[in-house]
Specification:
Helix content is 65%, strand content 0%. The chain is mainly α.
Amino acid sequence: MRSMNERFTCEKSILSWSPVGKLLLSACAVILLFTGCTEHPGLAAYRQGDYAGTLREYRAGDDPVGTFAVGLMHYKGEGVKRDPRQAAIWFRRAAAMGHAGAQYNLGLLYLNGDGVASDHREASRWFRLAADQDNVKARLNLGLMYAQGDGVGKDLQQTLRWFLLAAGQESVKAQVYLGEMYARGEGVTKDRGEAARWFRLAAGQGSVEARIYLGVMYLRGLGVKKDREEAAGWFRKAAAQGSARAKQYLEQMDATTAKVSGR
């Protein structure tokens, strides 16, 4: 851990960021949701664990919601043998009908080479289609891909654009990334006050990382008025969430106070 006397800089460079889909696909039950399926009659069968009935209901129609759901079930292995290749086929059909969730998930499959050949350019194409329909995760992934030049030409202005859109939809990750961009001056004019604003928004949604950043900024007076009590408050919130780093900052603050007071 860095000394608190060191000049504050964000610990992540844009160049180190990875598209979040690489992490999200490791938990398919979490990221491959029945987005847009809540009103479909097949959902009742799904909730009862009747996967055969679910597939029958969804396959009977020729609509994007049911088509996407069939792909989802193939991916998860519900009612059928798990088969990412079949999932990709069904996702593509739904995506061609304009289903944003299918477009996003097809992008993830291409990003990871899961059921299809890995193709980051193709992944970015599907993410863009989903992002244009306000899919917040697709917007976040596009921002990350533009930051790295991964599947697209490197363009930090595009990174900024997509992060701003995602942050406007209350994406905590996008808000933290924007804070980091402004703190480092990557793709934007360096502005620690603006960095603090984005970190505060993310911290308000429970981001441990943002709370630590704010604690350091208040401790050092970077972009905000120096305030040890405010700094300690943010560190305590992060520590209460299990952050060992925040606890270390608090211990260092206590040690400094003890040294100054002569205890």
